[in-house]
Amino acid sequence: MVITIKDIYQQVEKFSKLEKIKVGGWVKSVRVGKEKIFITLNDGSTLDNLQIIAERESSPSGLLEKVNFSSCLLVSGRLLFTPQRSQPFELVVLGSDLEIINSTADDYPLQKKNIPLNVVRESPHLRAKTNYFLVLFRLRHSISKAIHDFFHREGFYYVPTPIITNNDAEGAGEAFNVTTDKKEPFFSKPANLTVSGQLHAEALAQGLGKVYTFGPCFRAEKSHTTRHLAEFWMVETEMTFADLETIINLAEKMIKYVVNYVLDNNIAELEFLENYDKENKKEIINKLKKIVDSKFKRVDYTQVLEILKERKEIFVFNDIKWGVDLQSEHEKYLCEHFDNNPVFITNYPADLKAFYMKGGILPEVKDRVLSEVKNNPDKKMAVCFDLLFPEIGELIGGSLREDNYQTLQEKAKQKSLNIDNLSWYFDLRKYGYAPSGGFGLGLERLIMFISGAENIRDTLAFPRFNGKLEF
């Protein structure tokens, strides 16, 4: 049986008593001496490596010389304590107990130490072999697990929603079409990849009460920024009989739970990322602790405009007036304005938001809004929020859902959506509809913040973006 290096570190006393143990993994470094060869092995189960020492005399002729960087090995040997050395223990093997499963060809593109990330990005099928991406992918696993754990604890049901659909939930017209190479259509209607599972989650919440979906979404957005992908993962919640305050509190509680989980379970990964660039060290752990300890600031859209107007001269987009959509520079400034803390912004103009968001004004902002919106303010405002995060910008968006059948149809028409494709969604309002609300979280953006990654393309294994589909 092959034992993981993580198991060895956790149960070293147990394994040191055995005559022989077997491990497998990939070579991180090789140093050849006159009598021995020293191999550093890692199997992905932990950031810690295992030092292997093999006797050259006992190995078949030329075998050890074939061991090179990133080659795959199976090794059997005796675990010995080495308290006088930098590593706490090492695996001593005879050459005959070292098996080269697959050696690395000379043209392996990631041989160089401290290879620039932009070079590694050109080989996504290999980058899990590098320490930096090994750490990021381990963090992604932990963050995903923490999200599932959180919603399980909160009494939510995990539900799958379709990846192939016939509607554009956001109404932005950025959907990928799905077709086949056959002349006859496969489906009865034009199909596309989902941009959001929210509409389907809302339908499921009408029977289950509290649900969340966690899956891939797709948007044909021709953006080349470090914050956008064509394929990304969304966490979307939906719950009945909840007001906006309840949903906002849930979002804040979820973020803090996930960050706490990472601090408790991935401190080695965070320390690695803090020190990855020796010349530009990052302060990640203290940043995350601050998130857990802070109370997220809450302001409404009208207050935000007042804050931005005070410093409008510093912005490229400086025409700050009612109805303007906040740009990334505005979002960054707002977090800085509130001591680099997360900020909830509520009650946006309805024209800036999706058709399904309920219209209305929160009581605490009514006086400020009425000075800006003279006629029918309930129809011109959305009961919604965005959560802005330092370094990232928008991380979460949420709202109450429009519960009036006629009003919902009118909003969909105003967004030029296909009414027929959404008839099932409208019908929910006819058959015992319970008031509903929820939010959506972009997983990759959360990973960016927690890890300090500067490019969203580093947060998932095979990034998809405009102009790039190599793997």
General description of the model:
By secondary structure, the chain is α+β, with helices and mostly antiparallel strands. It has two domains: 5-108, Beta Barrel (OB fold (Dihydrolipoamide Acetyltransferase, E2P)); 127-458, BirA Bifunctional Protein, domain 2. The protein contains 15 helices and 17 strands. It has an eight-stranded mixed beta sheet. It has a five-stranded mixed barrel with strand order 1-2-3-5-4. It has a three-stranded antiparallel beta sheet with strand order 8-10-9, with no helix packed on it. A hairpin with a 3-residue loop joins β1 and β2. It is elongated. The chain starts with a helix and ends in a 20-residue tail after the last helix.
User: What about the largest sheet?
Assistant: 8 strands, mixed
Q: Beta-sheet strand percentage?
A: 15-25%
In DSSP terms (H or I, runs of 4 or more residues), the helix count works out at 15
Report the CATH superfamily of the largest domain.
Bira Bifunctional Protein, Domain 2
The count of domains is 2
Poorly predicted runs are none
CATH topology of the largest domain: BirA Bifunctional Protein, domain 2
| Total E-strand runs | 17
Write out the strand line-up for the largest beta sheet, numbering strands in chain order.
Answer: 7-11-12-17-16-15-14-13
**What's the assembly state of these chains?**
single chain
